[in-house]
Amino acid sequence: MNYLDATEYLTYGLDATTDPSWVTAASAVIDAHCRRATLGVTQYEERLKMLADLNTVRLSYLPLVTVAPAATPVVSLQGRYGLPRRGEWPAPDLSMEFALVFTLPGSWTTIDPTTVDISPVLGELTFPVNVLGLAFNEVDVTYTAGLQTIPDGVKVACAQVVKNAQATPALNVKAGAMDRMRLEYFSETLLDDTVRTLLTPYIARKGA
Fold first, then answer.
1. Given 130, 145, 160, which residue is the final one in a domain?
2. How many independent structural domains does the chain possess?
């Protein structure tokens, strides 16, 4: 998506006649820098490992957004039970035998998202403990996240990337469509310290 509308060019310091392809390419550079398909609201799927002794995971893309008519930002959720090591089983041995008979450890099970404590701002999901004492060691989450309204900081960053591109001799063209891949090639030059600072809150945690 474009992070600046043509009606906003003058407000953010761009010439009113700026070719929209500059903004489209600059927006793509921002998306790549933030490690996400878009800063707008979209759907993501992640498979995450849970740390030992913890029943919480943190999602990569923020903020989480509930899209009507859904009741939570989590669209679907599955968990896989782990097999505790010797001495780690919190319940009596009989419950362990019961769980093993029904092949719970290692199997995937659907989880009702409404039973999970969700922090939309932090992106944390906290899971309830199984009645047999089993804990999940891996979860698969499909959820919605992104910015419902593009903030001024992102718009300023987008305009600055365009201005940086227009000031770069290798990119300084007066007309015609600006190639997205061309701007991405020069991204290190286009994303100056000001732009990077403005975009810091929106960089996905995945791979960080």
1. 145
2. 2
Confidence of residue 113 (pLDDT cuts 50, 70, 90): very high
Return d(Cα 35, Cα 155) in angstroms, integer: 18
* Sheet containing 42-49: order of strands: 42-49, 136-145, 74-81, 108-110
Burial bucket for residue 8 (CB in 10 Å: 0-12, 13-18, 19+): middle
Which residues lie below 8 Å from residue 207, measured CB to CB, with a gap of 6+?
A: 35
Return the ∠ at Cα 19 (arms to 14 and 23), rounded to 5°. 65
- Alpha carbons 110 and 162: distance in angstroms, whole number: 46
Q: Which amino acid is at 97?
A: E
Residue 114, class by beta-carbon neighbours within 10 Å (0-12 exposed, 13-18 middle, 19+ buried)? exposed
Whether the model pTM is above 0.70: yes
Task: Identify the domain boundary among 119, 145, 171.
Answer: 145
Nearest to 147 by CA among 26, 30, 29: 30
Task: Say whether pLDDT at 26 is over 70.
Answer: yes
pLDDT tens readout for residues 151-191: 999 999 999 999 998 888 667 655 445 566 566 667 778 89
